[in-house]
Design the sequence.
């Protein structure tokens, strides 16, 4: 079972930085004893409400001498966000990236729909191995662990408290339309305009039945837990690909990116070729991530039996030739 630490750093920008659209660097902070970071805010002009937030990885002593990927910075999933009040995130960007001396900055572009007098920027680390330690008392740190809310979880089995029914391949799961639509544009459009999954709506439009026979209750519950609590809990790592598929099906981008990060984190030189051709090839996004992993580790991958027998894997594969061409072009 995966139940990782989630830690957040927030910084309230000084008024003069917002007013004059100045560049602002936060104080350093750490996601582990060897991974240090900094946020950089950059406005784009007084007449524009667009701005960027850079997540900067700060090299430790070992990183300064290495040309390889900084493993301490690349082993966690990050979410950069902005707020105009303490209680609600206005916009967010998820990052699944590797950092090195050649690429130690990840930039996220934001645009606020209205002028703002107060702005809070922050980053959440998901999967950090140690509790975060702040270098400045004014930083707001929030550490949440095991955050599945029992009251909401109980609703998945309570017909009376819910207005959406999911028919899965091994049972029935219930949920609330208000939560689904607030977390997913796909569900917003589905309940408004209809879709292939929506098989029944009562006359008052207050109860919906969705048919999703391709997924089990376990997979759907994992997805709903994420929508309800913003946390991913993997009870069985064998289900991770099914979770990616359901996140992609319902256009839950945050969940998809988080699961993709977990998939790539579990790849090995031995497993990567088989995973590419038997699983990842159907998703352009995931396929590119796996190919990138193979290219980064090609010196080891090419010595595996799986790579040496790649001809038998691609033979008869519906996209074998095309994928092999893409792989060779990236390697060369």
Sequence:
């Amino acid at each position: 079972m995966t139940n990782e630490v989630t830690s957040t750093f927030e910084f309230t920008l000084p008024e003069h930085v917002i007013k004059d659209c100045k560049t602002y660097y936060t104080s350093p902070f750490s996601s582990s004893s060897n991974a240090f970071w900094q946020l950089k805010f950059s406005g784009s002009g007084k007449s524009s409400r667009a701005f960027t937030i850079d997540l900067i990885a700060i090299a430790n002593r070992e990183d300064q001498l290495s040309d390889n990927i900084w493993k301490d910075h690349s082993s966690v999933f990050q979410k950069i966000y902005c707020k105009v009040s303490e209680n609600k995130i206005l916009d967010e960007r998820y990052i699944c990236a590797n950092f090195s001396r050649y690429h130690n900055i990840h930039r996220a572009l934001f645009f606020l729909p209205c002028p703002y007098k107060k702005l809070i920027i922050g980053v959440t680390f998901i999967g950090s191995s140690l509790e975060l330690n702040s270098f400045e008392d004014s930083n707001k740190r929030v550490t949440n662990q095991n955050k599945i809310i029992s009251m909401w979880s109980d609703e998945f089995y309570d017909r009376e408290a819910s207005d959406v029914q999911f028919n899965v391949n091994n049972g029935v799961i219930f949920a609330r339309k208000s939560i689904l639509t607030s977390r997913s544009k796909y569900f917003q459009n589905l309940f408004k305009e209809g879709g292939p999954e929506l098989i029944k709506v009562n006359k008052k439009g207050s109860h919906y039945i969705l048919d999703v026979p391709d997924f089990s209750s376990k997979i759907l519950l994992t997805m709903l837990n994420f929508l309800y609590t913003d946390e991913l809990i993997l009870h069985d790592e064998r289900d991770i690909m099914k979770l990616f598929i359901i996140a992609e099906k319902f256009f839950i981008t945050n969940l998809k990116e988080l699961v993709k990060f977990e998939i790539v984190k579990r790849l090995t030189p031995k497993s990567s070729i088989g995973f590419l051709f038997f699983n990842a090839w159907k998703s352009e996004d995931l396929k590119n991530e796996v190919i990138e992993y193979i290219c980064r580790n090609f010196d080891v991958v090419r010595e595996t039996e799986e790579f040496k027998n790649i001809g038998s894997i691609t033979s008869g594969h519906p996209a074998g030739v095309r994928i092999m061409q893409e792989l060779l072009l990236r390697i060369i």
In short: Residues 129-149 have pLDDT under 50 and may be disordered.
